[in-house]
Every structure is written in structure tokens, then in C-alpha cells.
């Protein structure tokens, strides 16, 4: 029997900027998400930063990861196109994500959390260890970690600076002030604008402030026993993170058994976006190992 010839123009891989907005009902509340990559794979679920919606995920990072695995990016409750009211605690967000994963029909996932998403991911790993196969924590820190409760005092002057200079505040919050950092900021912010149609709703000021309270509470709460977290863990950050001080990444690596640590040079809170190609390669190797 003759093997059929491959198509002359194979379908290009899916891109995050074109991924459909979807919703899953979680105990009566719709949660927004986007889903791309090979559907047969165990999914990698992505949790984003304070005030972030689906369009704040770096498309280069997600497209790179989705070349070899299924990637699902989600909005928190009360954020973007998800319904409900944003929780006032990281624990409440973790409960929502656990319920969302169950509603999507998955019994086990890989999990990647950036910044606030890393707080949520740690809480999930401790609450539901059997749910996770592997864990990636980026730009984040442990409960009670150094400087986390002072994120507002660090952030608001740079948000004002962004208004005065007509630049996105992430220019100053996520990247260093060096030439390399500024170039990385411009490239990252340009990528976030690539999606033209069906963009997510921006976070409301109320949701933004409720998430801030959750972050501040996380920074003040007692340390968690990360020594009982036996999920294989990869940790990454820049060497000059001013939002969640970089020393918190080293602390996570010291407290989580057998964790791997990547620190990017001349990089800030958004180090994984500045070094997105390298991060995709290292994260993919970690997930595939």
C-alpha cells in the first residue's frame, strides 16, 4: 500500500497570539484560558503576575514551550475575562487553580508560576502534591520572603515614572536600567501588542488592589515548610529583581529539596522574558528530563 505524500504546505504550529479565548465553568464561575500545543501531552499550566491577564503572557515564551507540549494559560478569578471577585489571599487563588485544573479534566499537570503566579504555584504544590509532576517558579519567592510585603512602596514610584515618561511601568519594574535591559523591555512590550483581535479585558483597579493585598499578606505570613515539597522544581530569576528581590530565588532553591536554580545576568523581575530563548530551552529540558 502506497504511503500518502505529505501536504505541500503543512499547517504552521499554533501561535499564542491567535489562540482562541475559552472558558471553563468552575463551581458556577467562568474561568478564561487559552490552550495550544500538542493535545496528547500532559499540560503545562501557566500562572501570571499581579494584575496580569492572558495578553500579558509573553508570546515568544509560550510559543517556544508549546512546540513540544500542551500549554494552558489561565486568568485568575476576577481578572481579565474570568468571572467572580479576585481573592484576597494567595491560598484562595490556589484553591481556584486546583478547581480549574479539575474542571478541565486533568489529574496531573506541570505548573509554571511567574511572580504572584509563583506564590500560587507553591501553595498548590503543598496543598495538592499529587496533582503536580514538575514545578517551575520564576521571579518569585517564599511566603514571608524578603521585601515581598513592600512591593507597593517599590512599585508606585515607578508606575508614576511610567506615566510621566509615557512608558509602560513594566519598563522600570521588570527590567534593568542598562542598555541591555532597556532594549529587552522595548522588545518584550512590543511582543505583548502582537495580538490584534479578541484581546483579553484589562484588570480592573479593584481587582488590582485586591491582588496587592494578597501579595502583601503573603509577604507577612509565616514561612511554609518547603522541605516537604518533593516535586522536581526549577527556579529562575534575574540577578537584579527589585519587585521580588533576587535573594528570594536563592532561598527557594535552598529550601526546596534538589531544586535547580538559574540566575540571568543584567536582568530584573522579567529575566525569563529578556532571556526567553534560553529559558524555553532550559525549561523544556527540565520538563522533558
UniProtKB/TrEMBL annotation:
GO molecular function terms attached to this record: hydrolase activity
The keyword Hydrolase appears for this protein: yes
Keyword terms: Hydrolase
Gene3D superfamilies: alpha/beta hydrolase (3.40.50.1820)
AB hydrolase-1 domain segment(s): 43-273
Pfam families named in the record: Abhydrolase_1 (PF00561)
Protein's name in the database: Alpha/beta hydrolase
Amino acid at each position: 500500500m502506497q504511503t500518502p505524500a505529505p501536504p505541500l504546505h503543512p499547517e504552521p504550529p499554533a501561535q499564542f497570539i491567535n489562540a482562541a479565548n475559552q472558558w471553563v465553568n468552575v463551581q458556577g464561575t467562568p474561568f478564561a484560558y487559552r490552550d495550544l500545543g500538542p493535545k496528547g501531552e500532559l499540560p503545562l499550566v501557566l500562572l501570571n503576575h499581579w494584575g496580569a491577564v492572558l495578553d500579558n503572557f509573553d508570546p515568544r515564551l509560550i510559543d517556544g514551550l508549546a512546540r513540544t507540549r500542551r500549554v494552558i494559560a489561565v486568568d485568575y478569578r476576577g481578572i481579565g475575562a474570568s468571572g467572580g471577585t479576585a481573592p484576597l489571599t494567595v491560598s484562595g487563588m490556589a484553591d481556584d487553580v486546583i478547581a480549574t485544573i479539575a474542571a478541565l479534566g486533568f489529574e496531573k499537570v506541570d505548573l509554571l508560576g511567574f511572580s504572584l503566579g509563583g506564590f500560587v504555584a507553591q501553595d498548590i504544590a503543598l496543598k495538592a502534591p499529587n496533582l503536580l509532576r514538575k514545578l517551575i517558579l520564576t521571579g518569585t519567592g517564599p511566603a514571608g520572603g524578603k521585601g515581598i510585603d513592600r512591593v507597593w512602596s517599590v512599585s508606585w514610584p515607578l508606575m508614576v515614572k511610567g506615566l510621566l515618561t509615557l512608558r509602560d511601568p513594566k519598563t522600570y519594574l521588570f527590567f534593568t536600567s542598562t542598555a541591555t535591559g532597556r532594549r529587552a523591555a522595548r522588545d518584550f512590550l512590543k511582543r505583548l501588542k502582537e495580538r490584534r483581535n479578541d484581546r483579553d479585558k484589562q484588570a480592573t483597579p479593584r481587582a488590582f488592589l485586591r491582588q496587592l493585598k494578597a501579595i502583601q499578606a503573603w509577604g507577612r505570613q509565616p514561612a511554609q515548610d518547603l522541605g516537604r515539597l518533593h516535586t522536581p522544581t526549577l527556579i529562575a530569576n534575574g540577578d537584579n529583581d527589585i519587585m521580588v528581590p533576587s535573594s528570594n530565588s536563592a532561598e527557594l532553591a535552598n529550601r526546596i529539596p534538589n531544586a535547580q536554580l538559574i540566575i540571568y545576568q543584567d536582568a530584573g523581575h522579567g529575566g525569563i522574558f529578556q532571556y526567553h530563548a534560553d529559558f524555553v530551552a532550559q525549561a523544556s529540558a527540565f520538563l522533558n528530563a
